[in-house]
Write a structure and sequence with these properties.
The protein contains three helices and eleven strands, in the order βββββββαβββααβ. The chain is α+β, with helices and mostly antiparallel strands. The strands form three sheets. Strands 7-4-9-8-11 form a five-stranded mixed sheet, sandwiched between helices. A three-stranded antiparallel sheet has the order 1-2-3, with no helix packed on it. Strands 6-5-10 form a three-stranded antiparallel sheet.
Length: about 210
């Protein structure tokens, strides 16, 4: 049995004898690798290539979470989500990207930023890494509002008590993985070490290295 002290993810890179990109879209693509298996055979692995993402759990002083509802075509549902966006600028600081997304999607700013959790959204099918920030000390943003377009024109916003979101997640009423991860992680943090036990907002992120400026 593995020692509990060794329970942590570790970088590893199995040999690849051939690799191709049969599709490349504007932001994401599909890569096909032939990967050496432990028994000496090779297996084909197809996966989505992705620049990475950031998301924000914005918590106000009444322990309400800022959520958005948006249509998601692949699943044919309008989902309640957290503000989020792509890291589509190479080397972009993820904290800066998260601050931009909170402004654009919710016209909001925050005085305190922490890293709530880092995760791979679906590691069996994509290399997308996501950093989820906790934003507190909220206030309305300044300047002009972001001009929405496309599906963003129908975004709805709400502020929902954290414990109500936890209840809805466990009842199977909310399905966005970042929202599910965020509200459960925040509830665990509040019930355990507290917010001061979270990492600073500018903490290193090995999955998506960035310039610290």
């Amino acid at each position: 049995m593995t020692d509990i002290q060794q329970i942590r993810d570790a970088a590893e890179d199995w040999p690849v004898r051939a690799s191709s990109v049969p599709f490349q879209g504007r932001v994401t693509g599909v890569r096909t690798d032939e990967v050496l298996m432990p028994d000496g055979s090779y297996a084909r692995r197809d996966y989505q290539t992705h620049p990475g993402s950031v998301s924000v759990l914005a918590l106000d002083d009444r322990q309400r979470v800022l959520v958005l509802r948006q249509y998601r075509h692949p699943v044919r549902q309008r989902l309640w989500e957290l503000p989020a966006g792509l890291l589509d600028v190479p080397g972009e600081n993820p904290l800066h990207a998260a601050q931009r997304e909170l402004y654009e999607e919710a016209y909001c700013k925050a005085g305190e930023w922490r890293v709530l959790v880092d995760f791979y959204t679906s590691p069996g099918g994509t290399d997308e890494a996501l950093r989820l920030f906790l934003a507190t000390d909220l206030a309305e943003a300044e300047g002009e509002r972001y001009q929405a377009h496309g599906e963003e024109l129908e975004i709805e916003t709400a502020r929902v008590p954290l414990d109500e979101l936890v209840r809805l997640v466990l009842a199977g009423e909310l399905h966005n993985p970042t929202l599910v991860t965020g509200v459960l992680a925040l509830r665990a943090a509040l019930d355990g070490p507290g917010l001061d036990g979270l990492r600073p907002g500018d903490s290193p992120w090995p999955a998506r290295p960035f310039d610290g400026d």
